[in-house]
Amino acid sequence: MSLISPWRADFPALAILESQGQTYLDSAATSQKPQALIDALTGYYTCGTANVHRAQHLPAERATRAFEDARIKVARWLNASSPTEIVFTRGATEALNLLAYGLEHLIEAEDEIVISALEHHANLLPWQQLARRRGARLVVLPIDTHGMIDLEAAAGLIGPRTRLLAVSQLSNVLGTWQPLAELLPLAKQQGALTVVDGAQGVVHGRHDMQAMACDFYVLSSHKLYGPEGVGALYGRGESLLKLKHWQFGGEMVRVADLTHADFHAAPLGFEAGTPPIGSIIGLGAILDYLSKLDAAAVTGHEQALHMKLLAGLEVRDGVKLLCAPQTALASFTVEGVHHSDLAHLLAEQGIAVRSGTHCAQPLMKILGIDGAIRVSLGLYNDGVDLERFFGALDHSLDLLR
Ligand SMILES: Cc1ncc(COP(=O)(O)O)c(C=O)c1O
């Protein structure tokens, strides 16, 4: 498999970054955007904007149609059974907070909310706060030495008091796919609701909501080469009915008087206020762009890059991977070198990687470290990016040791 990315030229920022001596290896934080998205956003903003679902005039009809088309595209991308199963949010974080408020009435004192030790803060703190509000218990599934949620331990910890299981699909720190096919049914057998944080997983491959035993799945557009400020909550039809409304205002209400109001069901009932219309249309455009790519070629390219990244890290003295990642990223420490010093030197040489706790402080504590360097890949990266990274890494380590 060639390490040249046939899609690199679709992303104009990469040539500009390159001309500035920058190598972008931080796509798990946020991705660069293709021209197809820039054109869609320019097209929308140039043709005249309008609010959605509110007016009969032509710009409003056009905006509403494009907005609802985007919902259909997200539903198709996830193989949801209906576009009404897609609620637009401002990102994965907001979708998880929506769930933590929307499901609050189902959680009672002494109930158990189960998460794992490797969760991003976005899939930890909303549940931690919910547990506090309701006097419930937050149960944390341990991870094994392969960076996977320990299924044996999970079978013992998920029980009759479990009301909800919320776990990541792909770890943003370890790069490991979590064993959802085995894990989610353990919660379902107890009658619990299941939430999957797909913020990283959605970027790599297509995932079929009808095949996954989840009630809810959340994603952010900006990691998937789309605009910031928009994400989606997938909810199985019957699971969405369990949600209580959480944000109140325009367009989510059916009828209101000064003392009472009656609200729409999902999705509109959970999209209070003017949504980020342009960004949602942009998300639809990104899914069009991605749908036209050869998915097997993208996966093959990402895997080949990933193997090169791992091979290069493994032969360098003192470099220690946090675990063996399976895709798209690698997090590591270097013996005797602080991650922030290394990240600083890499940045000085134009290498954009992330260092720190990656919004997963509990995981860092368990691993006994105060942070790590994370190199993360997008479909536009190529072998030259990795060679530049390794050159800068060697130079930095020479300076630091
Ligand atoms: C696994 C995971 N979950 C949730 C999030 C939060 O996504 P956002 O900040 O786009 O809401 C991230 C972002 O890094 C993530 O990696």
From TrEMBL:
Q: Which GO biological process annotations does it have?
A: cysteine metabolic process
Its cofactor is:
pyridoxal 5'-phosphate
Q: Which CDD domains match?
A: SufS_like (cd06453)
Quote the Gene3D superfamilies the UniProt record gives.
Answer: Aspartate Aminotransferase, domain 1, Type I PLP-dependent aspartate aminotransferase-like (Major domain)
Give start and end of each Aminotransferase class V domain.
23-389
UniProt keyword list: Aminotransferase, Pyridoxal phosphate, Transferase
Quick check: keyword Transferase in the entry? yes
Q: What is this protein called?
A: cysteine desulfurase
